[in-house]
Specification:
This protein is mostly helical. It has six helices and no strands. The chain starts with about 25 loop residues before the first helix and ends with a helix.
């Protein structure tokens, strides 16, 4: 008869990465483009918007890194990154149909840009 094997202590569980840091990931930015259902003529206006969205994502991430306990780090609608996004998006916005503009407003609200959404 064998003695029972010694019980190994359980390894401490690693904390889950914060999901808030994934706002505006590459996949989400691609999803935004897909949701807008851009036409071939609208596609050429997308690259500067994508670049500006990445800058906003970095700004949001930096704010959350600086204050990880905050439940929501608002992004300043007057920040340089948001101004860059507005400038990059304006030519595309002029090309969008009303249903696409509605989608843009909805997405802007989701990422915390309520004031920007109201201007679209």
């Amino acid at each position: 008869m064998q003695a029972p094997a010694p019980v190994k202590p359980k390894a401490a569980a690693k904390p889950q990465p914060q999901k808030n840091y994934t706002l505006l990931s590459d996949g989400q930015i691609a999803g935004i483009k897909d949701r807008l259902k851009l036409t071939a003529s609208q596609e050429s206006y997308w690259p500067p918007v994508e670049t500006a969205l990445r800058a906003v994502a970095r700004k949001i991430h930096a704010g959350r890194q600086a204050n990880p306990n905050a439940t929501g780090v608002p992004i300043d609608p007057e920040s340089a990154e948001v101004q860059q996004l507005k400038s990059a998006a304006m030519p595309l916005l002029f090309q969008l149909r009303e249903d696409q503009k509605s989608e843009v407003r909805s997405l802007a609200r989701i990422i915390g840009l309520e004031k920007v959404a109201a201007m679209i």
